Amino acid sequence: MRKKIVAGNWKMNNNKTETEALIAALSTKGSFSGVAVKIAPTSIHLSHAVEALSDSAIEVIGQNMHQAENGAYTGEISASMLQSVGVNSVILGHSERRAYFNETDEALAEKVSTAVTHDMEVVFCFGEELEDRKAERHFEVVERQLRKGLFHLEAAAWKTIVLAYEPVWAIGTGETASPEQAQEMHAFIRSLIEKVYGEAVADNVSILYGGSVKPANAQEIFSKPDVDGGLIGGAALNADDFFAIVQSI
Ligand code: PGA
To answer: At 90, is the pLDDT very low, low, confident or very high (cuts 50, 70, 90)?
Structure first.
């Protein structure tokens, strides 16, 4: 049975004091059940976050990592560095990484392989741009991103893959995909995975929706049968809003 997941991507927000305050606020929130809750602070605060949340069910995850094991890659962090501070899950392929840091499908496929080799969970992001949707090629774009980034994996590796469909036009814009648009795409993704990997893999993979999820719209989006949770940006920076979203699942 696939998992329900709500993950907060803090992006390049929160200095040390703000990080400590947000983690403290999250720690005071009530318990939750039936949903895996994850937060992705920026890399220099991961270690603190893991320690501060050691008694909590909230998991700390990375926002990115390099595909190489180590070496001359100034500014980058590796899988084993993440794991050495207790981080065993990483977001890969976020549209901001693709757009601003030139992450290609090929590089992402390598990053995914490295994470799988390390037994790390991957929250793999993908989604079409506004022009793609207007031109009605959103299914094609999503299929290509999945094929190039993930379909080199063996079926067994899919147990640590989480998908996050994030239409680029909905990220940080206040504009969400309608619950119907999300369901339509998630159903398409699941059927594509079924075609390539079979029913068991397709049924077990969690597919999150991301893009302007807020307390006011979360419940309706999460009510759709193929939406297994959310990847939350802006609203994850406020403990009350984030928990309201967690509780909407
Ligand atoms: P948003 O970001 O919730 O601020 O739209 C989502 C994301 O980028 O993961």
So the answer is: very high
